[in-house]
Every structure is written in C-alpha cells, then in structure tokens.
C-alpha cells in the first residue's frame, strides 16, 4: 500500500519542479523584455538627431552668392563677382560638409551593461558553467524551407555544463530560449549589432570572404570607427589571436567602475560588486563578441573563446578564438 503513495509523491515533486522551471522561464523572459525596452529608450536618446543650422546657412549663402554673381554680370563689377563667388563657396561648404556626430564611450558602456548584467543573472540562476559557442547563420542566398528560416540568424549557445556540444538543427530552427538537448540557453550575441555595422561599412558579407581577408579588413574598420586605438588579429596554427589596445569597452572588465556607472540604474540590484561581471570574460566585450561573430560567419564554423586575458590597467585585451567542428 505504500508504493502508490511513493509514486504519488514523486509525481507531485516532478510537477512542482516543472512549475518552478516554468516560473523561472517566465521571470527571465520578462526581465529580458524589460531590458530590451530600456535599451531601445537609451538608443533613441543617444541617437536622437540634433538640429544643426548648417543646411539653412548653406542655402542662404548659395542664394545670396548666386544673386551677387548675377548682379555682378549686370553691373560688370569685379568686386561683386568675387563676393558672389565667396558666398557661393561657403554655401556649398555648409551644405556638403556636415558635422560628424560622436557618442561618448561611457554612454556605450552604460547601454551594454544592462545586457551583460542580465546574462550574468541568467547564468547564476540556472547555474550554467559552459563556454559560449557562436553558431554561424546560413548564407542569405541559401534556400531553406519555411520552418528553417530562423537558421539564417546568428546565435550563441551557453551549455549547462562545460562540454562543447551544440543543439540540433530542429531546436535552433524553433528559436527557443531554453534548450533541452543539450541543456542550455540560446541568445543573440552581444556583438551581433557591431558585426552588422562592420559589414555595412566595408560593403562586404563576411560569409562570402575568407578568414585571411577578414583578418586584414577588420582592424582598419575598427580603428576607423574609434572603437579601439589599435587592434591586431593574428592567424595562428590553432586559435585566432586578437590583441586590442585602448578599447572603448575596457571598463566592462572593471567591477568597481561598472558599479559606479550603474549605481543609479534600475538594474543595480542585478549587480553584485563582490562577484563582479562574469559574462564579459565569457563572451568578451561587445567588440570581442563582434569579432567572434565575424570569424564564425567567415569560417562557417562554430567559434568559442579559448582564452581571455586583460591587463591590470585594462589597456590591453587579448582573446584567443577557437574554431570547432559541428
């Protein structure tokens, strides 16, 4: 008579575990949704265009200059002609030479911190220990059935255990957050946006270029966009070695500075100053993650960070990227 009770208790325990897991998933999804909304608000504030009078000034100068040139022809006046040419020149200069907009590095850090603190909270709550694995998307021109369309998106998988295993094609195509085989989570890479920016600036689809071509082009565009003072990418026999000097995201590796930045943030409760942020050392900063995305896309292989070394003064960040077989 005791056996049915034991089975009933085990069934009730299993149901409670399932309910607890569902509640955790709902909580994490809501946290991610809130963070996405806050990120969108911050991006709109940062990218909000500021009106500059250069266009109106340029048009005014051009109009006056043209009228002065016409008047100089009618009056056969050399002085009016020179004045008209000068005004026309400055009008064209104001119209075609617009001021370049810059964003302070601290603002970029602030927008990135919320994503990393969320990832930290997820990893801590689920007690996951695996290294992130970047999974390349299928090429844009490749034909895929409708139910596999999601495979054209770049994703990164964090396994529950420190074992380099990847989910099945069916699981990746379902665009699930929680994975069961292998157990882990599937999210968008922190550096995916930067990688897309690199492609747009270079006018190049990384899936159609070689690793050597990628490693030659990336340092130039990264320094041109002022994301780092200097960067070198070495093609070694094993892992690809990237050395970044003066990254604008270097403060993400410093717990004390991060605590100061997010002290007044609504996400301050997600940060534990004694523990610090772990995810920047797993994924790397957004720049390091963008390089991993680009390498994975160019090689068409899985990529993970084999080693991540940051100097004590935070000026030098070195990352070793390892390609894996699917």
How would you summarize what this structure contains?
The protein has 326 residues and is of the alpha+beta class.
Q: Would you write up a description of this structure?
A:
This protein has 326 residues and is an alpha+beta fold. It folds into 3 domains: 1-41; 54-96; 104-324, no CATH class. Helices cover 51% and strands 14% of the residues. It has helices at residues 2-47, 54-75, 78-96, 105-126, 169-173, 192-202, 211-224, 255-261, 279-283, 286-299, and strands at 133-135, 155-159, 178-180, 183-187, 230-235, 240-245, 302-310, 316-324. A 4-stranded antiparallel β-sheet has the order 1-2-4-3. Helix 1 runs antiparallel to helix 4 (105-126), helix 2 (54-75) runs antiparallel to helix 3 and helix 6 (192-202) packs across helix 10 (286-299). The longest helix is centred in the N-terminal third of the chain and has 46 residues, at 2-47. 26% of the residues are buried.
Number of helices: 10
Quaternary status:
single chain
Helix content: 40-55%
Task: Give the biggest beta sheet.
Answer: 4 strands, antiparallel
Order of helices and strands: HHHHEEHEEHHEEHHHEE
Number of domains: 3
Q: What is the typical, i.e. mean, pLDDT?
A: 75
Biggest sheet strand order reads 1-2-4-3
The radius of gyration is 27 Å
Give start-end ranges of low-pLDDT stretches.
Answer: 257-275
Beta-strand proportion: 5-15%
Distance between the termini: 51 Å
Which structural category fits the helices and strands?
alpha+beta
Overall body shape: elongated
Number of strands: 8
């Amino acid at each position: 008579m005791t056996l049915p009770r034991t089975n009933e208790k085990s069934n009730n325990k299993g149901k409670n575990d399932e309910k607890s897991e569902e509640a955790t998933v709902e909580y994490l999804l809501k946290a991610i949704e809130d963070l996405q909304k806050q990120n969108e608000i911050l991006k709109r504030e940062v990218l909000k265009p500021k009106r500059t009078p250069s266009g109106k000034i340029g048009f005014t100068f051009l109009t006056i200059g043209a009228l002065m040139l016409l008047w100089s022809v009618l009056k056969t006046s050399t002085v009016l002609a020179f004045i008209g040419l000068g005004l026309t020149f400055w009008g064209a200069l104001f119209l075609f030479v617009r001021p370049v907009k810059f964003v302070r590095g601290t603002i970029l850090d602030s927008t990135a911190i919320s994503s990393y603190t969320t990832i930290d909270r997820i990893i801590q709550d689920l007690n996951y220990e695996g290294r992130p694995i970047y999974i390349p998307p299928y090429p844009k021109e490749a034909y895929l059935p409708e139910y596999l369309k999601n495979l054209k998106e770049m994703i990164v998988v964090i396994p529950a255990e420190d074992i380099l295993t990847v989910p099945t094609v069916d699981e990746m195509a379902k665009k699930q957050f929680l994975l069961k085989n292998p157990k882990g989570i599937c999210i968008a890479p922190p550096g995916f946006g930067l990688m897309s920016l690199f492609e747009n600036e270079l006018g190049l689809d990384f899936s159609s270029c070689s690793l050597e071509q990628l490693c030659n082009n990336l340092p130039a565009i990264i320094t041109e966009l002022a994301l780092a003072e200097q960067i070198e990418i070495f093609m070694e026999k094993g892992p690809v070695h990237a050395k970044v000097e003066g990254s604008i995201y270097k403060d993400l590796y410093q717990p004390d500075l991060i605590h100061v930045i997010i002290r007044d943030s609504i996400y301050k409760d997600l940060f534990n100053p004694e523990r610090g942020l772990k995810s920047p050392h797993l994924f790397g900063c957004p720049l390091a993650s963008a390089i991993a995305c680009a390498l994975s896309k160019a090689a068409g292989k899985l990529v993970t960070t084999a080693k991540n070394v940051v100097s004590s003064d935070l000026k030098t960040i070195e990352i070793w990227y390892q390609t894996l077989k699917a």
